[in-house]
Specification:
The protein has about 325 residues and is α/β, with parallel strands linked by helices. It contains 15 helices and five strands. It has a five-stranded parallel beta sheet with strand order 2-3-4-1-5, with helices on both faces. The N and C termini lie far apart (about 50 Å). It binds zinc ion.
Length: about 325
């Protein structure tokens, strides 16, 4: 991975390139911003630029190839083991960092999901940050930097990452996935500027399953609630995807609200369902739509608290379909 192959984030690339060129890299960085926007790719590009024998992250020297194959002896990756990063993991890294670099000008440690360090691990890492060595570079990545110890944050140079503009993401999706304009628009809108979401397992959910979910919801009749219960059960089974499913529901009811208030159709997410949106919007009013959006937000909060998922989805879907 090189800086030039990363899409967007030009300001961040610039800052890092200039720091390398002037020999003024910080001893620790905190790349902070939403999941899946390219923080880890940027960290790997930075590592390669530092480690490269040609000082450019050329991609062809043996050092660059080792970085790409994840077997460079001076590049270490730390990520959660299960749900947290534990103190033993931090101690192992500290031991590594106590040796001189073997091949590169410095040892580099990438800590992905840094906010998932438990208390002991965080306190231990703090010691390393308090006593920086000239030949070690730490790169912390976090989607929830507010969960990190304030003392850790303040000892890192912070580099914020924002979501990619929807049009940039759409262009890349059309080019890389071969999807059409409409699908590119929907994927980009639902993945909220996250490459990881748009390119990963959510693609099918956003393009195909979304149609089935919305079809069942909008075909609801008070005399047959069974399809809604079946849908709730199916959705509740996949815990990891529930937040993304709520995103789909939210986007649909937001579309209805925007449509009712005369926003142009190209501003909507579900531009492949315009006929359905026109039809359903006629039956809804603003107050009811706002209540439905609030119900979706409430479900999101409930699911964060580990309530009975199926029950929560049944209540929500019945509310939305009514
Ligand atoms: Zn190279």
């Amino acid at each position: 991975m090189t800086f030039s192959r990363i899409l967007g984030h030009d300001r961040q690339k610039d800052i890092l390139r200039r720091a390398i060129d002037s020999g003024r890299l910080a001893h620790a960085y905190l790349f902070e911003g939403p999941e899946g926007v390219g923080k880890r790719l940027m960290a790997l590009a930075l590592a390669r630029a530092v480690i490269c024998k040609n000082n450019a992250g050329c991609g062809v020297c043996p050092a660059c190839r080792k970085v790409d194959h994840n077997n460079h002896p001076d590049l270490h990756l730390l990520e959660p083991d299960g749900t947290t990063i534990k103190i033993e993991q931090v101690r192992n890294i500290q031991k590594e960092l106590s040796f001189r670099p073997l091949e590169a000008p410095m040892k580099i440690c990438l800590i992905d999901g840094a906010d998932r360090m438990n208390q002991a691990a965080a306190n231990s890492l703090l010691k390393t940050l308090e006593e920086p060595r000239g030949d070690a570079l730490l790169i912390l990545l976090s989607a929830r930097p507010e969960s990190l110890l304030g003392t850790i944050r303040s000892r890192c140079q912070r580099l914020p990452f924002t979501r990619l503009p929807q049009d940039t993401l759409k262009g890349v999706l059309i080019e890389q996935l071969g999807v059409d304009e409409i699908q590119g628009h929907i994927l980009a809108a639902l993945s909220e500027g996250s490459f990881k979401k748009a390119l990963g397992k959510d693609r099918d959910l956003y393009l195909k399953q979304r149609l089935e979910i919305l079809k069942t919801l909008t075909a609801f009749s008070p005399r047959s609630v069974l399809p809604i219960f079946d849908l709730a059960q199916g959705l509740a089974e996949d815990k990891d995807r529930l937040p993304d499913i709520l995103d789909i529901l939210q986007a649909f009811y937001r579309d209805l609200l925007l449509y009712r208030h005369g926003r142009p159709e190209c501003d909507l997410v579900n531009i492949d369902l315009l006929e359905k949106i026109r039809r359903v919007a006629l039956k809804e009013n603003t107050a009811a739509l706002l209540r439905k959006l609030e119900a979706i937000a409430a479900s999101r909060r409930q699911l964060d608290r580990n309530v009975n998922r199926q029950l929560a989805m049944e209540v929500l879907l019945l509310h939305l379909a009514a």
